[in-house]
Amino acid sequence: MQFDHDLQSIQEMRDAVKRAKEAQLKYLSFSQERVDEIVKRVAEAAYAKSLELAQMAVEETGMGVVEHKKMKNEVGSMVVYESIKDEKTVGIIREDRVNKVTEVAYPYGLVAGIIPTTNPTSTAIFKTLISLKTRNAIVVSPHPRAVKCTVEALKICQEAAVKAGAPDGLIGWISKPSMAATNELMKHRDVNVILATGGGALVRAAYSSGKPAYGVGPGNVPCYIEKTANVSKSVSMIVDSKSFDNGTICATEQALVVDRNIKEMVIREFKNNGAYFLNADEKALLEKVITLSPGHLNPAIVGQSAVKIAAMAGVAVPQDTRVLIAEETRVGKDVPFSIEKLSPVFPLYTAESYEEAKEVCLKLLNLGGRGHSLSLHTNDDAVANGFALEMPVSRLMVNTLSSIGAVGATTGLTPSLTLGCGSFGGNITGDNVTARHLINIKRMAYGIKDVSVPKPSIPSMTNKKAEQETLNVEDIVDQVLNQAGSNAEVDPKVIAEMVNQVIQKISN
């Protein structure tokens, strides 16, 4: 009996989860030394296949540049490994001998890894490494357009892990992915945490699954070239960054904001670095290619070269063109150049002042990149600090390539291919996600402070009871007068004074 694709996909996912759960229970008993050896072997195996996997990814997806995807695979394997190799993730990881608190790490259990089509092999390697480092198992749902290369990366990791002594099944995947299987994977009772990298709808599904989830939002990254910047150096880096893997990294610069008094110099340097400036007619043609409907990016341009995108719009450009630029004044869903484009296409905004530059950057972030990243080129520390304090982003790259700087290649940021957007972007963290995000910590605490717990006091009478038991002087006087009769010569004041004296004696 032939089952349809969705049913086959769901069954494959369930089988992979079952194997992964069984393997993870065995993996729980592994020492830090055994875990670290497995992680090292997996990183080395993936690194050795960086070029092969890059070629597969470009061939299958039709996106990006082989040499650049090779670099991303190297970052996702050995650079990530170097950043986590010395972390303690098994057993006792910290001891505070002064306060007598001991911290013990324990894993989530089973990780659901959702992989994008833009960075399929590097993200798969990265998520596998941080899962294994923390004694978690992982089951991956590849993007349908990047199945072969993603699964091949996982097979390389799985083979190396098993050879190093890891339980078979610790790394699993869906070779026939479907949205139905991905949704069920995220909701599966045996899945304990989700690492979701992909489109907005997918990330929202991860957060609504009822599971702990690390999701990331879009990165409509503004790039402000401030008047004190080293224009020649800055422009060279920006073009290198924007054309890196044809703009497929979500932290890549998406829009240029330039101070008026250096604008002409900036334009000249961009032209010297392979940029093509579109005239009004060419800009109009390209707008129709960037979006097919307002606010919706045309997936056909994602990860394509500037020359190819220009040809799609019917615009003739030199064959050595690296980026396409058009001057822009507006920001909005109905302004194609202002959205996240994931391709080497730039709008250029002119700022008359520092305040206007901030305003334009904020509009761009509010359009679709809140919480992600911002790129800044300046030699004024006050400007950099001002942006760091005021911009709603989780990372700000200064005087470097934003695309690879955000993932830790040119900065001191934690090497990662999952970049959190924090509360600005509706994410649980603004960190570069890494191994420490996949462990929980329990704490053992000894008593170090003596306290005296007071005993409860004897409860006082209620107001009602007190009222009932209070001697009423006037009532007593009235009773004495009645008993004495109306003819008796009695002074009420004298009697009242006598009664008060008696009550005081009784009270004392």
UniProtKB/TrEMBL annotation:
<dbReference type="InterPro" id="IPR013357">
    <property type="entry name" value="Acetaldehyde_DH_acetylating"/>
</dbReference>
<dbReference type="InterPro" id="IPR016162">
    <property type="entry name" value="Ald_DH_N"/>
</dbReference>
<dbReference type="InterPro" id="IPR016161">
    <property type="entry name" value="Ald_DH/histidinol_DH"/>
</dbReference>
<dbReference type="InterPro" id="IPR016163">
    <property type="entry name" value="Ald_DH_C"/>
</dbReference>
<protein>
    <submittedName>
        <fullName>Acetaldehyde dehydrogenase (Acetylating)</fullName>
    </submittedName>
</protein>
<dbReference type="Pfam" id="PF00171">
    <property type="entry name" value="Aldedh"/>
</dbReference>
<keyword id="KW-0560">Oxidoreductase</keyword>
<dbReference type="InterPro" id="IPR015590">
    <property type="entry name" value="Aldehyde_DH_dom"/>
</dbReference>
<feature type="domain" description="Aldehyde dehydrogenase">
    <location>
        <begin position="11"/>
        <end position="272"/>
    </location>
</feature>
